[in-house]
Here is the input.
Amino acid sequence: MSNDNNKYIRICQGLTEIPNNIPIYTQVLEIKGDPIALVPGNIFSQLSRLQVLDLPYNEISTIQIGAFNGLSSVKELYLHDNRLTSLPSGVFKPMTSLKEIGLSENEISSLSPDVFEGLSRLTVLDLQGNKLTQLQSNLFQELTKSNMINLYLNKNQLSSLHQDIFVGFFNLDRIQLGSNQISQLPANVFKDLSSLSYLDMGSSDLTALDYNTFSGLVSLKEMWLDKNKIVRLDSGVFNDLSKLRKLSLAGNLIVELPVGLFNQLTSLEHLYLGVNKIITIQSNTFSGLVGLKEISLQSNRIRTLESSIFSDLPKHLSLWLSGNPLLCTQLKNGEQLGSIEWGIQEGKTYKPECTNYNVEWEDINLDCPICMSLQYLISLINPFFRLAS
Here is the structure.
């Protein structure tokens, strides 16, 4: 047991149980990396001054009812990287000052509706990396009374969301739902999240986005929908997202971008559409994106681009087109695309590969058809390969 200024207690002695002689003046208690399996009832009841309880990287599988009695001053509780499979109803109720709970990387498969009862001050709830398969509609109802800001549900096994799961979360700023198995989102599921600025739903199983999927997200600035299975997008799906600055739809199965899809995204700066199956882009697809700084379209199936596609966009736009079967006759020296930058990384400018190998670009170092063919094949193997000039 180490003691820092008689307030910070760190225990790392290979204990198999939590000691009952922890000094009552302790404000920060850390017990980590021990083969402790149980948190008994009333074990911390004398620690009325405790503000941070840190119990990660143990083997805790059971928390008894009353385990946190007496801990009304605790503001931060960390139980990540243990072996918890469930939590008793009202287990956190004595912790009336609690602002942050870390429960990530456990084996929690279900949660009762009243498990978060009494947590009126909670701002951060981290449940990522568990085995949750579903969330009851009223699971977070008690937390709507708090100033909840960050909710982490990524890396679970969720296959769906109830349409009322986020009702009342008017202050929520950040949600991470990526790396689940969600294939469809209920209509208006985010309607109350008027303060949300960040939404991650990448690496899931989404196949379609309907026009009212993101209704209500009027403050959203960043959204990740990459690595799903999206085939269809309704043209009005992003209509409420006028403050969005970054949007990723990379790594999906998109063939066509509907007319008007991006028209309301007047604040958009970064748009990632790489590694899809896009064949053609209509001339007005990017109309209205006056603040755009970067478009990624690499590793699609684009063969031609009309010069009018980028006519309304800022002059110094970074454009990523590698891994497309573009015709050099159209894009030779970028004449038809004005002053658009092909894409800059670490001071180097990158241009797309071409399938018409009889036409040479003066800026391309590889001047033989065989080399060009090999370079193009490599780009298909590695979607993020970029041909350097």
Notes: The mean pLDDT is 86. The first helix runs from residue 328 to 331. Residues 1-157 form a domain with the Leucine-rich repeat, LRR (right-handed beta-alpha superhelix) fold (CATH 3.80.10.10). The helical segments are 328-331, 369-381.
